[in-house]
Amino acid sequence: MKNFNRINPKKRFGQNFLEDQILLDELANLMQIENYDRFVEIGPGTGNLTQLIVDRSDFCTSIEIDRSLISLLEKKFIKKNNFKLINESILNFKLSSITKKRKSIRLAGNLPYNLSSPILEWCIQNSEFIIDMHFMLQKEFAERCVGDENSKSYGKLSVICDYLFEVQVLKNVDKSFFKPPPKVDSSFVKFKPKKEFLDQDEFTNLKKILNYLFSAKRKKIKKTLAKIFNENEIQKINLDFDLRPDQLNTQNFLELSKLLNDHG
Asked: What CATH code is assigned to 200-263?
């Protein structure tokens, strides 16, 4: 078998491998894996975290886009009957292909920084099947996910995450733990979907109102809202119009999105 330590991470796939066993054990412990859990792992890499998931859970399906890692992973887990490897981009994979049961899959992964947003969007589209997600993310991205109107990192992503998930940063991880070390630190983050069913119309209108307001995030909201709603509609809004978008909370944005829906 080839030495996994000799694998050269590929920049085009955003690969930064984790090899520190103490850290990996800590991450697995933070995930609170049960022997009945069924996992989908995004980007197993050389299989270090995969090993802990496979050892502790009922089943693990790992999705790996890098074809050069497939034979290595197959050899590493050849004796594991509760492991399946799929050579595909996670963005092309559908959870409905492996389960029809709602809230039945846990997700995990050390995500490539450049795909964090698309993968989070993929999770939203597949949320009906997801119990929770544990992702290693760029620290700055993680701060945006958990930001609120009192933090500098607050923005559209913060509102969307608060609307859809309970989000918790479980651990910050220094860049020196990765091979090769990235330029920035990371955070291990838990996402737990809040909604049994996603109201697509409400979510679409929420994203629209966020785009409207945050496209002029330094301006008071009254200037932007006046371009969208008429005077009678604006009078229905119980808001301080001298606020900027980054001073509104999620409920404020939902009230505006409902008005947008009524506006048509």
From this structure: 1.10.8.100
